[in-house]
From TrEMBL:
GO terms for cellular component: cytoplasm. The keyword Isomerase applies. A divalent metal cation binds at H34, D36, H67, D176. This is Ribulose-phosphate 3-epimerase. InterPro entries: Aldolase_TIM (IPR013785), Ribul_P_3_epim (IPR026019), Ribul_P_3_epim-like (IPR000056), RibuloseP-bd_barrel (IPR011060). Its cofactor is Fe(2+); a divalent metal cation; Zn(2+); Co(2+). Its EC number is 5.1.3.1. It is an enzyme of class 5 (isomerase). Signal peptide: none annotated. GO terms for molecular function: D-ribulose-phosphate 3-epimerase activity; metal ion binding. One of its GO terms (biological process) is pentose-phosphate shunt. The lineage of its organism: Bacteria, Pseudomonadati, Bacteroidota, Cytophagia, Cytophagales.
């Protein structure tokens, strides 16, 4: 098993001290910074917009992994790319022309990801898996941090891993929602490559330590 990629979710950070929070991530063993964008339509919540992404980017020394929980993402891909996204994930449930959306993300020079909600079967990715860099498997219903991990996720990750291997594809499997030290190892055993963690990191007394322990999971 490879060392997992760790992506703290900035949604759980103290927005009044965003620079300090981003610098903490810079100083940690985290690999990426996960940035959640919510529009109040695709999900029942708002999070942050482009100025906040630009502010994170100004201080960040790690790539920004942007997760778009929005309808009509095609309209905003260029703006998020310009704001500093390294990878952009769109929801399969929000993209009737997913192949075209993925091609647009790639044409902008970003890594392309697809996120799937807890009820969405992985088979929906069968015809796109070879074209993408990342699958973001939602292990909670998107919209809020701090929710309980959905156990069925393990089965989905196993199926997805098989699909990726069968297709000779190279997409990474990212787990998003309710990740903690207990589920990290079984998730990696099932085939996950990237662990997003929001509250588990930012509500800890020592977030740097928590990130180091997640990174050392094997
Ligand atoms: C949920 C977001 C997640 C969230 C994870 O809609 O996509 O990225 O920030 O936060 P935790 O780890 O607290 O569940
Ligand atoms: Zn997310």
């Amino acid at each position: 098993m490879q060392t997992p990629v760790i992506a703290p979710s900035i949604l759980a950070a103290d927005f009044g001290n965003l620079e300090r929070e981003v610098k903490m991530i810079n100083d940690s063993q985290a690999d990426w910074i996960h940035v959640d964008i919510m529009d109040g339509v695709f999900v029942p919540n708002f999070s942050m917009g482009l100025p906040v992404v630009e502010a994170v980017k100004r201080h960040a020394k790690k790539p920004l992994d942007v997760h778009l929980m929005i309808v009509n993402p095609d309209h905003y891909l260029a703006a998020f790319c310009k704001a500093g996204a390294h990878s952009i994930s769109v929801h399969v449930e929000a993209c009737p022309h997913l192949h075209s959306t993925i091609q647009q993300i790639k044409a902008l020079g970003c890594k392309a990801g697809v996120a799937i909600n807890p009820h969405t079967p992985v088979v929906q990715l069968e015809n796109i898996i070879a074209d993408i860099d990342l699958v973001c498997v939602m292990s909670v219903n998107p919209g809020f941090g701090g929710q309980k991990f959905i156990e069925h996720t393990y089965r989905k990750v196993e199926k997805l891993k098989k699909m990726i291997l069968d297709a000779n594809a190279s997409a990474l499997i990212e787990i998003d929602g309710g990740v903690n030290q207990q589920n990290a190892k079984p998730l990696l055993d099932a085939g996950a490559d990237v662990l997003v963690a929001g509250n588990f990191v930012f509500s800890a007394a020592n977030p740097i330590d928590v990130i180091a322990r997640l990174k050392a999971t094997h």
